[in-house]
Write a structure and sequence with these properties.
heterodimer; A: 312 residues; mainly alpha; 76% helix; 0% strand; B: 110 residues; flat
């Protein structure tokens, strides 16, 4: 409740901007973690995000298709990409490192296609959706006020958590958990391995594309390096792992930590030492991953459960 | 392995040191051809990994063949189209080949 009421009393644009970014990235990390927690380590989510952002923006600029139609189309495109890469992978039982590499190739392909078609997409210089009627419009899903965006991002973040919650209480969850433990045993007990894996991959890809489109509508500027490619894919993996894959709010904590860390370091060091923030950020990530493999929130929650057990 | 008198930690450390050293040497050779920038590792790292897997992990000749094929696809497509399309074709080639031969190019199926 306090989170919803916040923009009514608080109007400072910079903290609101950071909060919106944290929420949008939380959405992305949550959709990655829905796959990642079952051992399906995908490095292709940068590709799905890029598809989501670019399809929406290109449809709007060239064909004047409202994002209300463009975003579902973008999600459909991402779903097709997910099936194209996912179905053969699951059918031929490509798992582990090999799955990660094939999805890595997907995000690399998306990045290179965006860069190669620079006459249409602007290439590595980036791309801007056209403003509609001077700024705020529900039809174009463009809003000037940060407060509106904050509420939208908050609501959608809630939806992402709800989807994750529903999936965790569905048969799909148990099927995928069995597959993650032992694929052959799961198949022997009647789990349709290919279909179940494909379901979660398509769901995750569509959510990622949605978040990519949302990011594009909020920032009004996308470039291949910020919405697609290997860097973005790795960023998703790191942040979700830092926060904790197995707890619902883990990816959110991961997003908050990584974005606040980057911003704080950027403000501290400023332009005097460009690139230092990445150094500190990278070192902290390595430390987190070695010493807190369950993620920050995961470890804290596990510690709390242990402490409570000891009291009893 | 420890039971046979192999100090596995030592072997891991030595192997990583040799691997890292060789990668450094390769980078020195790359500098002759390419310019240097902070993200140079990010542009070559993933491709290296893909080529190793394509050739078959641990298979030297396979790795060489895969590297040759990758380089040729990128360069020849770059000659006719943009260089980026070369990368697109190379990655596509990798994806298709992994579906056909998941063990790598030169490894016989057991």
């Amino acid at each position: 409740m306090a989170l919803i009421a916040l923009p009514l009393v608080y109007h400072d644009p910079y903290p609101l901007h950071i909060l919106v970014l944290v929420l949008v990235w939380s959405f992305l990390y949550t959709s990655w973690s829905m796959m990642g927690r079952f051992g399906l380590v995908s490095l292709g989510h940068g590709g799905f995000m890029g598809i989501g952002a670019y399809v929406t923006a290109l449809l709007w600029n060239y064909l004047h298709v409202s994002p209300w139609i463009g975003i579902p189309l973008a999600m459909l495109a991402a779903a097709i990409a997910a099936v194209l890469i996912g179905y053969p992978c699951f059918r031929f039982r490509i798992t582990g490192h090999y799955f990660a590499l094939l999805t890595l190739a997907l995000s690399a392909i998306v990045l290179q296609v965006i860069t190669a078609t620079r006459n249409v997409t602007g290439g590595s210089l980036g791309y801007t959706p056209e403003r509609y009627n001077g700024g705020s419009s529900l039809y174009a899903v463009q809003f000037l006020s940060k407060e509106t965006w904050y509420l939208i991002a908050l609501g959608l973040w809630g939806v992402a958590l709800l989807i994750r919650y529903r999936v965790e209480r569905s048969m799909l969850h148990y099927a995928l958990e069995a597959i993650a433990e032992d694929e052959d045993a799961a198949a022997a007990t009647g789990v349709h391995v290919t279909a179940e894996k494909l379901k979660i991959t398509v769901l995750s890809a569509m959510m990622t594309a949605f978040a990519g489109a949302l990011y594009c509508q909020y920032q009004m500027f996308i470039s291949p390096d910020t919405v697609s490619g290997i860097g973005v894919s790795l960023q998703m993996v790191f942040a979700a792992v830092v926060g904790g894959l197995y707890v619902p709010l883990g990816p959110t904590v991961g997003a908050a930590i990584t974005i606040l860390l980057t911003e704080t370091l950027r403000i501290w060091f400023g332009t005097a030492a460009v690139g230092w923030d990445n150094l500190v950020y990278g070192t902290l990530l390595v430390l987190f991953i070695i010493f807190l493999p369950q993620g920050l929130l995961g470890s804290v929650l596990a510690g709390l459960i242990q402490a409570r057990a000891r009291v009893r | 392995m420890p039971l046979m008198g192999v100090d596995s930690r030592r072997i891991y450390v030595i192997t990583s040191a040799i691997g890292g050293g060789l990668a450094g040497l390769a980078a020195c050779l790359l500098v002759l051809q390419y310019d240097v920038q902070p993200f140079v590792g990010l542009t070559f790292g993933p491709i290296t990994f893909l080529i190793c897997v394509l050739g078959g992990l641990g298979n030297m000749i396979g790795g060489f063949v895969a590297a040759f094929l990758f380089a040729e696809i990128i360069s020849v497509s770059g000659l006719y189209l943009d260089l980026e399309w070369g990368y697109v074709f190379a990655f596509g080639f990798f994806v298709v080949l992994m579906f056909i031969r998941p063990q790598g190019l030169l490894v016989r199926r057991s």
